[in-house]
Design goal:
Two copies of one chain form a homodimer.
Chain A lengths: L1 H13 L6 H4 L1 H19 L2 H10 L10 H33 L15 H4 L3 E2 L4 E2 L11 H6 L4 E5 L3 H9 L6 E5 L4 E3 L4 H4 L10 E3 H6 L4 E3 L2 E6 L4 E7 L5 E7 L2 E4 L4 E2 L16 H18 L6 H7 L1 E5 L3 H21 L2 H6 L1 E5 L11 H13 L2 E4 L2 E6 L3 E7 L5 E7 L2 E4 L3 E2 L2 H10 L9 E3 L13 E3 L4 E3 L7 H13 L15 H14 L10 H8 L9 H14 L7 H24 L1 H8 L6 H5 L10 E4 L4 E6 L2 E5 L1 H14 L3 H17 L7
Parallel strand pairs in A: 3-4, 3-11, 4-7, 11-22, 13-14, 13-19, 14-15, 21-23
Antiparallel strand pairs in A: 1-2, 5-6, 8-9, 9-10, 12-20, 16-17, 17-18, 24-25, 25-26
Main location (chains A, B): mitochondrion
Keywords (chains A, B): Calcium, FAD, Flavoprotein, Membrane, NAD, Oxidoreductase, Transit peptide, Transmembrane, Transmembrane helix
InterPro entries (chains A, B): EF-hand-dom_pair, EF_Hand_1_Ca_BS, EF_hand_dom, FAD/NAD-bd_sf, FAD/NAD-binding_dom, NDH-2, NDH2-like_C
Chain lengths: 685, 685
């Protein structure tokens, strides 16, 4: 491009332009000036020097005769500049890269490790070692300071735990994370990893890197039990000889965020199914799918066997099942046909078994219909109103409710089955729930109050978030407390002593109570909008006041409208952030002495959490699902949209933005680009 | 940047520049013109329109007062151009990406598959199914044409097979590749993958994609035996029920490139070791290393146990062992210390056990010394003259020869052991060698002649390349044939009938024989340089002629100087390319009818290979080894160099260039950039 610019300058000077100057006026004066300058540049400088002076000088550009040439010149300059900047960028990156290699190695120096970290004291109910001091407690100045802070122990390394860690301000707590997996998994993209649209590395982030940011500690172990009295978590790990070793981790505050396990729904033969909870599941699924394709190509495989091997069944029509079916279909349709015999494409079938009458049944009906239409077009066989009864190694038995209400049992040959029918409680959570007895009544998850404190444990010590927990919305159960608080606040302490059955609440009293309910149960806010209407409706005797029975009836009716929060990454994320903000606020309040002053004012048992921070309020931001080169986005309240490639790019953008770190974002972008350039990797290893 | 350019233009117009025009002459005429244009632009256009007109117009740039400002303006323009071009590039990529999604799906159409492909005929010595027609033989026009071509069957999917496939011209052969792994593995970078410097995906390329380029077929199965008479390969595969299924694949030309297995050297306890032959080995090693680091952090791990867990032992001082030790050390030194307790770094030890007196003993001694110095500085414990006797789950027993010649037995506690002490023959190759009896005398590899034809099989049907094969350099064994050929050629057929023991070869005869030897054994060329000297040396009786015994002695002495070729990727690569070129030449010769004419001229048994192509000649291009943020490059013949980061970048560049596809190159570059940006991934999954 530079050669051209110089060539132009020279050839222009050879033209008889000088005599034309007068005729053309200003314009040609300018051109001759340019010619002189170019000529001077050309005669005085060479090579790189010339390039540089051309780039950074503000000398006018040579004036061309043709407009097209001028534009071409400008475009070439644009491209040239880009190449130069890119080149500088690449050289810069290499210089940076070279600086990242540790050429000087730290020699083995004395490291300050407390004796208690090397030989922990034994104790607790089972006389196990207690992790009172960590190996890295003295590793840095800030870690040394944190030793004296309250011990915050987090069980789990998923969405809840990581959101908490990312929001937590460092140096307020001595943080320890206990998780059997040393990585955080970006679960929403897991179906993409099963067929190689994304690589496994783009979905995981080392948990130690996340913990490092808050100066915390990591223990690779599994939580087994909690002693709420002595505030000890009992954890287990398998040592290198395969023996289980147990020890205690003490806490001041404990956050349970251990997630969930796959729900077997009591179906026999699930050992023949694949699951999709972990990164290894994704790899195993990819290997199995490719394995089946390869087996289908062999001459020893009969026709029936080939059709069976290529029959892919997904049990569960929720987002995971639907997205896996979509990704699988994409792979079969975009990559398989390139490299495998054409016969395979013809004999492949993808089936989706759903127990409800629609797939994606938690989504808006229009959107779930869109997904069904899409699948119908893509020849993905959606079987609704169907329940799996038993899984055999080579087939699935399921019952299907017909339109006339009769139930028919069917058998589907299958070569691969994914089981993704919802979640259930981990054995650890079941153990805790049993221990807490009557305080825990939910069979599916640990119950917390709206401050996310585990019911049945000392206030402000144990929290539960994410899939393993559910927020109990028992408004009516707190009726006495609501009445007491609001009347005390309005009429003084004496008003409360009266017999509740003799209460007659006027509209103003009701308004005060509603305010209390809203504060304590933010989820109820939506149902407390028209207070006058509610008052009129439940004032059955039209007395102009609500008596205790009428109030109770009103609150029970609100309870019935409150649904439990979905077991999604979004909820876990919000709960983690909520706890982090609360813990930050608590630390600030303690440090400033404000908390002590406030608690001194309180008359009843002090509720520290309520004093420093509001109750947890879930804000549903929407649900997404990828359905095969198209996506649906349900924003709640009937709003949402569905579409083709543009919706897919929107879906990707949202998850790109939500991804846990800059690293995973770069990796995801790279992997998507790879798919575009090279397709998916049809390899099993 | 644009805002600034406009701002400058405007502020310039506010200056009292108009009156100065006359004084400054041409220069200010130009500036006022620029001002007018800028003002016009600014008043008429806005936003993007303005940007574009500014970019593609050739109007002069506004003239600035200060030189620094001018330079800044130019630099900003440079950067701006780069951003614009980059933006266009990104948009372009998204448009391209969108085009890669199959939004229109091929409906299930009738696919033309031969009945014999679906129900193969049974036959052969064991009456197994015979893969005479492939499922995809009718999938495209070119595949249909290839059905009639000679069947080229390649066993294996490593360096040899892939080099052959990449060099082979399509449509000359009906190509079938049989390999139990459906990917090609870029073995030289395997040590990098064990610690996450590279991801696994960057090292593998789907074998189907490589085969696709020559319109070949792939069978995922394992070669078990070959029937050289009926020209059938017996292969086995495990079906989905875990049963072994066997079938035959017929061939006209067979290439055996099945590689090698790890050499156990008869040591007990290798089940406690890791190997590094496959991509899964790399993942298992990474998991084990991280697992040990995590176990070392737990409070239940005692001091001794921690030291043992962090004792990493590598058995074998060849390139694989050395590179793994280097990569491991890099990871421990660059990444581990960031995220794990400092104590770990102090207690880690890396040991390298080598049986010879130097590591990298096949390299130039200066270079191997450099590597040893580097390791000494890095505190990698190199144990030379040491032989492993037995591996226990938690320790290694080895004997070490002391300087005084005594042999001492030592025990080394270990938490991880890599076994990389060379290669040995696969069971398949052992079976073939046994079958071929006296034609195969080498215990370590299949013997071929210098045309890479497997000794003992019909000429021109079976070839063996790569690690599984060795080229037999038995010059002396061919003495009679050499004498016959050269004398026939010089003196006519009658000369050959004389008794060989009565031969008296003059220097000219010897020269003719040497020429024959060079042609048939290209590796001997180096030892046949001074023919006069050799003649004089072996003409013991100074008769001026060589008799038969003297000639034999001369050739035997040359034989003794010829070493067998190294079992490296480089050799396999060259052999694969050689075979492809020969097969291409053969196809051309057959097609042109030249071959038939040439063979008609031949008097003895026709040697088709020799007629169409020269014998295989290995050209050693050099050996590389990465030794921890530095590398050594041995170019042979005493040349070579070693150095720090620059050598590492050179080492990377060479492998980058050698990588199998554009895809793997892009992935490798991305992975190296990832390491620079984010470090290695310290996760196990």
């Amino acid at each position: 491009m530079l050669g051209r610019s110089i060539g132009r300058g020279r050839s222009a000077s050879l033209r008889p332009g000088g005599t034309a100057t007068a005729r053309m006026g200003l314009k040609f004066d300018y051109e001759s000036l340019a010619q002189q300058r170019i000529q001077r540049l050309f005669s005085h400088h060479h090579g790189l020097h010339l390039v540089l002076s051309r780039y950074i000088s503000s000398d006018p550009l040579p004036r061309k005769g043709s407009r097209a040439l001028r534009i071409a010149y400008r475009l070439a300059a644009l491209l040239g500049s880009a190449v130069v900047v890119l080149g500088i960028g690449i050289v810069g990156f290499f210089i940076y890269d070279a600086s990242t290699y540790a050429t000087e190695h730290a020699n083995q120096r004395e490291v300050d490790v407390a004796a208690l970290a090397l030989n922990p004291r034994h104790g607790g109910p089972k006389n196990l070692p207690i992790l009172e001091v960590c190996l890295d407690d003295n590793d840095s100045e800030s870690m040394r300071r944190q030793k004296e802070k309250p011990r915050l122990v987090i069980l789990g390394g998923g969405w809840g735990a990581v959101s908490l860690l990312k929001e937590l301000e460092p140096e307020n707590y001595h943080v320890t994370v206990i998780s059997p997996k040393n990585y955080f998994l970006f679960t929403p993209m897991l179906p993409s990893a099963t067929v190689g649209t994304l690589g496994l590395r783009a979905l995981v982030e080392p948990i130690r890197r996340i913990i490092h940011a808050v100066g915390g500690h990591y223990v690779r172990a599994q939580a087994e039990n909690v002693d709420f009295q002595s505030r000890l978590v009992e954890v287990s790990q398998t040592d290198c000889n395969g023996n289980e070793q147990r020890f205690y981790v003490p806490y001041d505050k404990l956050v349970i965020a251990v997630g969930s396990v796959t729900n077997p729904h009591g179906v026999k033969g699930l050992e023949h199914c694949h699951f999709l909870k972990d990164i290894n599941d994704a790899r195993e699924i990819r290997n199995k799918v490719i394995q089946n394709l390869e087996l289908a190509c062999l001459p020893t495989t009969s026709d029936d066997e080939r059709r069976r091997l290529l029959s892919f069944v997904v049990c569960g029509g929720g987002p995971t099942g639907v997205e896996f079916a979509a990704e699988l279909f994409d792979m079969l349709n975009e990559d398989l046909i390139q490299l495998f015999p054409k016969l395979l494409r013809n004999e492949i079938s993808v089936h989706l078994i759903q127990s409800r009458d629609h797939i994606l049944n938690t989504y808006d009906e229009t959107l779930s219909k869109y997904a069904e239409d899409r699948f119908a077009r893509d020849q993905v066989d959606v079987l609704v109103n169907s329940r799996v009864r038993e899984v055999h190694p080579d087939s699935i038995i399921f019952t299907q409710k017909q339109d006339d209400g009769t139930i028919v049992t069917k058998q589907l040959p299958m070569g691969f089955c994914l089981w993704s029918t919802g979640v259930s409680q981990t054995p650890f959570c079941k153990r805790l729930a049993a221990k807490l007895g009557s305080a825990q009544t939910n069979r599916h998850a640990l119950e917390t109050d709206t401050h996310l404190r585990l019911n049945g444990t000392p206030l402000g010590e144990v929290y539960a978030i994410g899939d393993c927990a559910t927020v109990q919305n028992n408004v009516a159960d707190h009726i006495v407390s609501f009445v007491k608080r609001s009347l005390t606040w309005k009429h003084g302490a004496s008003a409360v002593d009266t017999d509740p059955s003799k209460l007659h609440l006027r509209f103003n009293d009701w308004r005060a109570i509603a305010e209390q309910v809203r504060k304590r149960f933010p989820q109820a806010t939506d149902h407390l909008k028209r207070l006058d209407k509610l008052f009129a409706e439940y004032d059955r005797d039209k007395s102009g006041t609500l008596d205790f029975a009428e109030l109770r009836e009103l609150l029970v009716q609100i309870d019935s409208k409150l649904t439990s929060l979905p077991a999604t990454a979004q909820r876990a994320h919000q709960q983690g952030q909520y706890l982090a903000k609360k813990f930050n606020a608590l630390a600030r309040a303690v440090n400033s002495g404000r908390l002590i002053r406030e608690l001194a004012k309180a008359e009843e048992t002090p509720d520290v959490d309520a004093a420093v921070y509001k109750a947890f309020d879930y804000k549903h931001l929407g649900s997404l699902a990828y359905i095969g080169n198209s996506a649906i986005l349900d924003l709640g309240h009937g709003r949402g949209f569905a579409g083709g490639l543009w919706a897919m790019y929107a879906w990707r953008s949202i998850y790109f933005a939500q991804s846990v770190s800059f690293r995973t974002r770069v990796l995801m972008a790279m992997d998507w680009a790879k798919r575009g350039l090279f397709g998916r990797d049809l390899m099993s290893y």
